Amino acid sequence: MQEPIRLGHPVHTFDGRELLPAGTELTAGLLKDLAAAGARRNWPEIPMLDFGTVRQDMKQQMALGGYRHIFSAADFGGDVEKLVGEARFPLPVLEGLDYFKKNDFYTYRHILMVYALSCLLSRRMSGGGRRICVEAAAGPLHDMGKACIPLPILKKDTPLLRSEKNILEQHSAAGYVLLSYYLGEAEALSAYVARDHHERRDASGYPRGISLSDRHVEIISVCDIYDALTTPRPYRRGSYDNRTALEEITRLAEEGKVDWEIVSHLVALCRHDHSRSEKCVVSLEKRGTPPVESLYGVIVEDGEEESA
Ligand SMILES: [Fe+2]
Ligand SMILES: [Fe+2]
After folding, report:
1. From ligand 1's centre to the CA of 155, what distance in Å?
2. Helix, strand, coil shares of the chain as percentages rounded to 5?
3. Is the C or the N end of the chain the one with fewer CB within 10 Å?
4. DSSP alpha helices (H): ranges in the chain?
């Protein structure tokens, strides 16, 4: 039995009201009460793709970088658009998405692209089966908890202090709380995707350090890593090219952190002809060149920032 997560910092609603104070233990009972309080609010629900400029922003991003090859025109105009279009959310959640669009565009587009890619990958892995596709459509917004993280930390372009890293890592628990509340459902797929997307198969992740074995969360984790590597970030000059990003992800699979089968489907998707994954041989040879100037994972102990 896992210990419940204890919040190190308060969780605020998207309109800035404190929902849970620091020190709260996220027990099943508490989450159930919170979800019931959210359900009573009866917020109107809107398809995510129809909110603001989400549909056009997603389409625009699909034409950039490695996504050019992944999303052929046929992919988004047809099945994938239908699948992505099934996701409906309470209005305040979509307004939360708008917060990122205005204040941290990277996180906004990252949330959209991780969702689109995970839908495509889920559909591919399920052979178009209905059940997993519907599940995929329920699982976006994995990083919404970042709304509780101060923008100077989210956008920092110098090494994070240990204390700042701890705050940043709370976004997964915060997302779990926020989505349980707004969706009015403690076991909502989106909520536990938010909670577990930084867990790893070998139990080296956070917040609980559990061994991740949920196929759907694992798909989102792999898409999350792919998008983070291939997109410019404040802490890194340049981004990984497609090949080097896939090499980095295959290294994680070799180390037992992420699932090989998911990775091989992603590699197959990145090939121009979307080859069948059983015919797709994933090379273990590493020939790519990661960006040289990256502060990812560089942490400075508090009080030692002067010498960093
Ligand atoms: Fe995250
Ligand atoms: Fe993410």
Report:
1. 14
2. 55, 5, 40
3. N
4. 28-41, 54-62, 67-70, 73-77, 79-84, 91-103, 105-125, 130-137, 151-154, 162-169, 171-183, 189-196, 215-230, 242-254, 260-270
Rounded distance, CA 57 to CA 67, Å? 13
Q: Which residues are CB-neighbours of 197 under 8 A, at least 6 positions away?
A: 142, 143, 172, 217, 220, 221, 224
Q: Pick the residue with more confidence: 128 or 161? A: 161
Q: What is the pLDDT of residues 118-145, one digit of tens each?
A: 988 888 887 766 665 556 656 679 999 9
Interval between CA 171 and ligand 1 midpoint (Å): 7
Nearest to 147 by CA among 168, 165, 131: 168
Does residue 278 surpass a pLDDT of 60? no
Burial of 223 (0-12, 13-18, 19+ CB in 10 A): buried
Ligand 1 centroid–CA 109 distance in Å is 13
Which ligand sits nearest to residue 198's alpha carbon? 1
How many CB atoms neighbour CB 53 within 10 A?
Answer: 11
- For ligand 1, a single-atom ion, the residues with CB < 5 A are 143
Query: Helix, strand or coil for residue 81?
Result: helix
- At 130 the pLDDT is 60
pTM: predicted TM-score of the whole model, two decimal places = 0.89
Residue 196 CA to ligand 2 center (angstroms) comes to 11
Residue 225 DSSP code: H
Ligand (nearest to CA of 206)? 1
What type of residue is 41? Answer: R
How far apart CA 97 and CA 271 sit, in angstroms, is 31
- Could you tell me which of 263, 258, 269, 256 has the C-alpha nearest to residue 283? 263
Ligand 2 mean position to 281 CA, how many Å?
A: 27
